[in-house]
Amino acid sequence: MLQEKQRIMDFANNNPFARMLNIEIKEMEPGAAVIEVKVRPMHLNPHGTLHGGVLSSMADIAMGVAVRTLGKIGVTVTLNTNFINPGNLGERIVARGKVTHQGNTLVATECIITRDSQVLAQSTGVFFVIHNRHLED
């Protein structure tokens, strides 16, 4: 299991898009993942607050990693994000993704994105399973 966790961590940390955004995987357990980003100038929208695309990307990555922790490789079918509060320059933003239902071909997920204890966004997603792998492989 430790080897699979490292494989998932390596895969997620080598995602060019996540690296470009400076997203870091912080925690993983079966069916859940926590990622983090420190808001930099490149993350801001023209209004000077955290761009919604960064929040949506964080949700997609956190939920996708959560799916992968269950030995499933999935691609996003749907991603819905509700933006609640703005993020600001210099803040640490945390996304907690988790699997809420897993089937053979579709996996349902949710994600809460926070700054400290304040919710910035809530997301749900559905992933299509393209491959199941045994955690010992």
Automatic annotation (TrEMBL):
NCBIfam families: unchar_dom_1. It holds the Pfam family 4HBT. InterPro entries: Acyl-CoA_thioesterase_PaaI, HotDog_dom_sf, PAAI_dom, Thioestr_dom. It comes from the Bacteria. The keyword Hydrolase applies. It comes from Desulforamulus ruminis (strain ATCC 23193 / DSM 2154 / NCIMB 8452 / DL) (Desulfotomaculum ruminis). Residues 47-120 form the Thioesterase domain. GO terms for molecular function: acyl-CoA hydrolase activity. Gene3D superfamilies: Hotdog Thioesterase. Keywords: Hydrolase. This is Thioesterase superfamily protein.
